[in-house]
Amino acid sequence: MEALFSLVVGVLTASGTFLLLRGRTFPVIVGLALLSYAVNLFLFSMGGLNTDAAAVIGDSTAPSDPLPQALVLTAIVIGFAMTAFLVILAVRARSELGSDHVDGKTGEERGKG
Amino acid sequence: MTLYVLLEWVISFLLVAGGLFAFTGSLGMLQFKDFFMRLHGPTKGTTLGIGCILIASMLYFTVTQGDFHVQELLITLFLFITAPVTGHILAKTGLHMHLRFITGTRGATPEFLDEDVGQHRVERPPRPKRPKRRARARRWL
Amino acid sequence: MNPHLLILPILLPLVSALGLLLTGQANLAWQRRVSLLATLALVGLSAWLLWLSDDGQIRFYALGDWPAPFGIVLMLDRLAALMLALTAVLALGCVLFASAGEDSQGSFFHGLFQLQLMGLNGAFLTGDLFNLFVFFEILLLASYALLMHGSDKPRVAAGLHYVVLNLVGSALFLVALGTLYGATGTLNMADMARRLVELPEDRQVLAGAGALLLIVVFSLKAAALPLYFWLPSTYAAAPAPVAALFAIMTKVGLYAILRIESLIFGAGPGAALIQGWLWWMGLATLALAVIGALGARDLRVLAAYLVLASAGVLLASAGLDTPQADAALLYYLVHSTLITGALFLLAELIGIQRGKAGTRLVRARRLRQGTLLGWLFLVAAVAAIGLPPLSGALAKLWLLQAVDATARPWFWSLLLLATLGVLIALSRAGSVLFWASHKGDTSGSRVQPLQLAGVLCLLAGAPLLALFAAPMAEFTLATADQLATPQRVLGALFGEPTALALQTEESP
Amino acid sequence: MLDKALWISLTLIVLALAMNVIRLARGPDIPDRLLALDTMYVNSIALIVMLGLWLNTKTYFEAAMLIAMLGFVSTMAICRYLLRGDIIE
Amino acid sequence: MSLPWILFLPLLGALPALTRPYRDTPGPQWLPLLPPLLALGLLLAQGPAILGGDTLSQGWAWMPQLGLDLALRLDGLGLLFALLILGIGVMIQWYAGYYLSPKENHGRFTGYLLLFMTAMLGIVMADNLLLLWLFWELTSLASFLLIGFWSQDSDARRGARMALTITGAGGLALLAGVLLIGQTVGSFALGEVLAAGDLLRASPHYPWILSLVLLGAFTKSAQLPFHFWLPHAMAAPTPVSAYLHSATMVKAGLFLLMRLQPALGETPAWALALTGVGLATLLYGAWFALLQRDLKGILAFSTLSHLGLITLLLGLGQPLVALFHLLNHATFKAALFMGVGIVDHETGTRDLRRLGGLAALMPLTATLTVTAGAAMAGLPPFNGFLSKELLFAASLESELLGGLNPLIPLGVVAAASLSVAYSLRLVHSLFFARPGGEPPEAHDPPRGMLAPGLMLAALCLLVGLFPMALAAPLVMAAGQAVLATPPPALNLALWHGLNLPLAMSALAVAVGVLLMSRRRLLEQAFQVFGRYDARRLFEQAMIRLTKISLGITQRLENGSLQRYLALLLITALAMAGLGLSRLERLTGELALQPLDGMLVLGAALMIFGAIGSALSHRWRLVSLLMLSVVGLSVSLTFVRFSAPDLALTQLSVEVVSMILMILALFFLPQRPPRWISTRRMFRDLAVAGSLGLLVAGFNFALLTRETLSIANFFLRESVPGGGGTNVVNVILVDFRGFDTLGEITVLTLAGLATFKLLSRLKLFMPAGNVEGIHWSSHRHPMILAVVAQILLPLALLVTVYIFLRGHNQPGGGFIAGLITAVALILQYMARGYEWTRERLPVAYNLVAVSGLALATLTGLGSWLFGYPFLTTTHGHFSLPLIGDFELASALLFDLGVYLAVVGATLMILINLGRVTTVHRPRVEEH
Amino acid sequence: MNGGHGRLASRWLPTPTLSLLLLVVWLLMVRSLAPGQLLLGLALAWLIPLITRRFWDPLPRVKHPLKLLRFTGHVLWDIVKANLHVSLLILSPRRTPHPGFVEYPLEVQEPLTITLLANTITLTPGTVSTNIRLDRSSLLIHVLDLDDEQALIEEIRQRYERPLKEIFEC
Ligand code: NA
Ligand code: NA
Question: Is the pTM of this model over 0.90?
Answer without folding.
Answer: yes
